[in-house]
Design goal:
Layout (H helix, E strand, L loop, with lengths): L1 H23 L4 E12 L4 E12 L4 E12 L2 E8 L2 E3 L3 E13 L5 H9 L6 E10 L5 E10 L6
Antiparallel strand pairs: 1-2, 2-6, 3-4, 3-5, 3-7, 4-6, 7-8
Length: 154
């Protein structure tokens, strides 16, 4: 019985320790955002590699199942998805994140060119959903709403 109690206490301690790591994932912040590569793959979609600066005060984890939408003055202009991205513990570094984007209905390539010609991200926001998973499989869905993209150009 004493052995069972010791194992139970150890199990609870490990769960608490890992749970704290999962909770600290909420302290993750985006420190920079850029585009390394951007190319059209069809008349409605793009392929890109984003340069994503992440400040991670927590433990190793993997970002997966990234989905998002980009808006220009509250008008949805495109949706995007990305694959997996391993993030190192206690680091602030820039990662390359391959992704694909699809133009929203009613948005043309010409619309994007007009927006790009302004050479400003003013009025552009994004919503992002992703999963952050630890090596043991435990995870946490994270959602970021109305991230002002202009803040990354200053």
């Amino acid at each position: 019985m004493k052995r069972f109690v010791k194992l139970l206490v150890l199990g609870l301690a490990l769960t608490s320790f890992t749970g704290c790591g999962v909770a600290k994932l909420k302290d993750l912040s985006v420190s920079s955002l850029g585009v390394k590569y951007l190319a059209p793959t069809s008349n409605r979609s793009l392929s890109a590699v984003l340069l994503l600066g992440l400040d991670n005060p927590s433990i190793d984890f993997t970002i997966s199942d990234v989905e998002g939408v980009v808006r220009y003055y509250d008008r949805e202009i495109l949706t995007f998805t990305a694959g997996e991205l391993p993030v190192q513990a206690r680091s602030d570094q820039v990662y390359e994140l391959p992704c694909t984007a699809t133009l929203s209905p009613g948005v043309s390539v010409l619309d994007l060119l007009v927006i790009a010609s302004k050479k400003s991200l003013e009025g552009m926001t994004t919503d992002v959903k992703l999963d952050a998973r630890l090596k043991n499989g435990m995870g946490l869905p994270l959602t970021f709403k109305k991230i002002d993209l202009q803040q990354f150009t200053q």
